[in-house]
Design a protein that fits this description.
15 strands; about 50% strand; mainly beta; disordered N terminus; Immunoglobulin-like; single chain; Jelly Rolls; six-stranded antiparallel sheet
Length: about 270
């Protein structure tokens, strides 16, 4: 049972990745008789040290009138963008030093956004009548390294189950650990996680004990509760309130457009 942006100048490789989705073949509402026959096995869509491109926050600020803010964009960022909302009809933004290509100035209606490909430290000057708010984000393909939630290590927290990721349709590495926090909330931590770098992947809480095929993963009762934060690195998730820990027997990484199971981890108590 399933519960569950990209804009601006995207470089060619990222654009092709987005168009490709999680694999090849037809997009169906449910796995067909042979749902992944046309999907190449063990396809590597990016170098092993690269994650699927993702947007992460850099800074957010608000003011009235004209303000200049220094923003630090990773030099390895694919691109970065400013998204804005304002009380007036239009807002203008100017970055300095200017990018090697493209315009240093963006102007548009509210709400709006604009993207650049020049990384490093930049001065962003915002001008607008009335109150406005600007959020700056960068697109990166580096590994995600979230530290464990403090609540996972606090007194009263308990490890309920743990398991290693294994291949279903794509290779998977790393460990999944299910926690019960002191307040009763369930949390999931994935450490050393790695799978093919691709977009449109989701995390499922599955009642299947050890799904080995896409069909088995799809047929088992499951909850799609979050988009996968990164295809590479360490990451934390808070599970939906009211989740029954006894029914979370495995974690499945699912590709929604093509409807194949990438990888899974059986949780052993």
């Amino acid at each position: 049972m399933s519960a569950g942006s990209r804009m601006g100048p995207v470089i060619a490789a990222a654009a092709l990745l987005a168009l490709a989705g999680c694999g090849e073949g037809e997009h169906t509402s449910a796995p067909a008789k042979d749902p992944f026959r046309a999907v190449p096995r063990d396809t590597i869509t990016a170098p092993a040290d690269k994650a699927a491109p993702r947007w992460e926050p850099v800074t957010s600020f608000s003011a009235t009138g004209a303000v200049t803010k220094t923003v630090d964009i990773s030099k390895g960022a694919i691109q970065w963008r400013a998204r804005w909302r304002c009380a007036s009809e239009r807002l203008s933004l100017v970055i300095s030093p200017p990018p090697r290509s493209g315009s240093a100035r963006a102007e548009g209606a509210c709400p709006g956004e604009h993207a650049w490909v020049a990384g490093g430290r930049r001065a962003l000057r915002v001008e607008g009548a009335g109150r406005w708010r600007v959020t700056v984000e960068q697109e990166v393909d580096t590994a995600l390294h979230e530290v464990a939630l403090p609540a996972m290590e606090a007194s009263g927290a308990k490890v309920l189950a743990r398991g290693d990721f294994y291949k279903i349709e794509r290779k998977g590495l790393g460990t999944a650990t299910l926690y019960r926090l002191a307040g009763g909330r369930l949390a999931l931590r994935m450490e050393g996680f790695r799978t093919d770098a691709n977009t449109d992947l989701f995390v499922w809480l599955s009642e299947a004990r050890r799904p080995r095929t896409t069909r088995a993963a799809f047929a088992a009762r499951h909850v799609e509760f979050a988009g996968l934060k990164s295809t590479l690195g360490d990451q934390n998730y808070l599970l939906p309130r009211g989740t029954d820990a006894a029914k979370v027997r495995s974690i499945v990484i699912w590709c929604e457009p093509v409807q194949i199971a990438y990888t899974a981890a059986t949780l052993t108590r």
